Task: structure prediction
Amino acid sequence: MNLEEIKDLIKLVSKSGLGKVEIEREGFRISIKGSQAEPIMVQAAPVVAAPAPVATPAPAVAASAAPEAVAPSDDSKYITVKSPMIGTFYRTPGPDKDPFVNVGDTINTGDKVCIIEAMKTFNEIEAEVSGKIVKVLVDNASPVDYDQPLFLVDPA
Result:
């Protein structure tokens, strides 16, 4: 990939609003991250083949040694509201306005919870569940990806 192709790729990422693009070819890898809030970063690193693993005998495991159980997360009882698109997350309808929802607010299905800007279009995102907002997982004016968690909602 030459310098002109890299420049064209950077322009494409900045115009399209994509969060991240990675390309891997023989001998190099390029990763371009872009958003409106941050400058575009280009990282190029040579791809090095990993050495073949060496077969070693597995150590014997004592019968009394049991793997530790992983404790379930406290968040497992909550429903996650996820982003339906790639864009920029906004908690408020305008710079000097109050947020759509705050931690502790009760929401109903169809209530507006945020705005996601994609390609200069502001899309109002509605709640698909009813419950109480437990946590806001994204900072205001931050880029979000498709299916990225935005809020935790307690349906109880």
